[in-house]
Amino acid sequence: MRAQDLIQQKRDGEELEPEQLAALVDGYTCGEVPDYQMAAFCMAVFFRGMSDAETAALTRAMLYSGEVLDLSDIPGVKVDKHSTGGVGDKVSLALAPIAAACGVKVPMISGRGLGHTGGTLDKLEAIPGFQVRLPVERFREILASVGACLIGQTERIDPADRKLYALRDVTATVESIPLIAGSIMSKKLAEGIDALVLDVKVGKGAFMRKTEDARKLAHTLAGIGRATGKKVVALLTAMDEPLGRTIGNALEVAEAVEVLRGGGPDDLRELTVALTAEMVLAAGLAGGHPEARRMVLGAIADGSALAKLEEIVAAQGGDPAAIRDPERLPRAASTRVVAAPRPGLVQAVDARALGIAAMTLGAGRSRVEDPVDPSVGIVLQKKTGDYVEEGEPLCVLHCGSAGAASPDEVAGRVRDAFRIGTVPAEPRRLVLERIA
């Protein structure tokens, strides 16, 4: 069957058979179907959608494009966590070591920055020497001995998603629910997990802008997991403003370390604890949420979570001294303060606008081949609800020596991302809903 015929069928709203989707995915994975045809197919799916049966078939085709790990010989319940993508979302960097310190086995296969959002792999690579490309055999060894291992897709594990993930990033097809579901679940099921905790973002800085869309995605993901015998829990969480106070890879690593030391911004700490507690529950290590939270907070308080991160970093070739002293992480060539144009209350902070601004500084990529500068980004000095005087810093830009945009241009965008007024903003809960 020809790829153009399948593109035309989907463009016209027809439902594709599992065999057709399998052939398309196989052809793309081995290079017989070029990027431009797969991009056209993704755009057709973006506008026409997919039935539940098609989404399940797409997920299976991507899952079996490579090796599906069997981790049953490693003692313990294997649980992973996945976020649908947000701005300043560095939760995985703290969550994985906390969960491992509590006794959860955490096999985590992550992705790179997608659109205006950051990627866990890009953040990890800001740690000097850290290797995200490991052979499957080494992945298994580290998981068994350390309790957690964080890598990217390999040629052997879900190679279809590795190619498709990058393509969606640069073809404006990221927000499609079937494509998101296929990407997440094929990657996670290939890990050999027993359970999965999902952080489904909703708001201006998320791919899902509306709560009903986020809820639909969560149910789609949970349905795929249920059909394959995996326990799936999803939290719908607000992403109207950046999570925490940093945007940018090395900056976010440092902030995650703050959380492991018992500090960090309130919202980042709250979400990290909530999601990690769900992992502890899914692993059967606690009898309820109160006990799971006590275990998570205990691992932070006694230092075992921070020690576990150092152990993970060392096992994956990184320099644990950069965790003990985040000053050893990459540093930007210069900084630039963005000041408030007038006094008042910060009524909103546009997460998407700041994510794009950080990307133009070099913290993310607009094309697959774009390099990422681990040192650049944005540090927020004010967030929603804070009072600011005229001329007081709203945030600080960390700029590289050869950014894609000038600091003056980025500063203007960033200033416009803050809405300042006289009326306090309506408070919004961070965790909006739990779907299990």
From TrEMBL:
Keywords attached to this entry: Glycosyltransferase, Transferase
Gene3D superfamilies, A to Z: Nucleoside phosphorylase/phosphoribosyltransferase catalytic domain, Pyrimidine nucleoside phosphorylase-like, C-terminal domain, Transferase, Pyrimidine Nucleoside Phosphorylase, Chain C
SUPFAM superfamilies linked to this entry: Nucleoside phosphorylase/phosphoribosyltransferase catalytic domain, Nucleoside phosphorylase/phosphoribosyltransferase N-terminal domain, Pyrimidine nucleoside phosphorylase C-terminal domain
Domain Pyrimidine nucleoside phosphorylase C-terminal: 345-421
Pfam families linked: Glycos_trans_3N, Glycos_transf_3, PYNP_C
Enzyme class: transferase
Catalytic activity reported: thymidine + phosphate = 2-deoxy-alpha-D-ribose 1-phosphate + thymine
PROSITE patterns reported for this sequence: THYMID_PHOSPHORYLASE
InterPro entries for the chain: Glycosyl_Trfase_fam3 (IPR000312), Glycosyl_Trfase_fam3_N_dom (IPR017459), Glycosyl_Trfase_fam3_N_dom_sf (IPR036320), Nuc_phospho_transferase (IPR035902), PYNP-like_C_sf (IPR036566), PYNP_C (IPR013102), Pyrmidine_PPas_bac/euk (IPR018090), Pyrmidine_PPase_CS (IPR017872)
EC number(s) per entry: 2.4.2.4
Organism superkingdom: Bacteria
Subunit organization: Homodimer.
Protein family (similarity comment): Belongs to the thymidine/pyrimidine-nucleoside phosphorylase family.
Protein name (Swiss-Prot/TrEMBL): thymidine phosphorylase
Organism for this UniProt entry: Anaeromyxobacter paludicola
Phylogenetic lineage: Bacteria, Pseudomonadati, Myxococcota, Myxococcia, Myxococcales
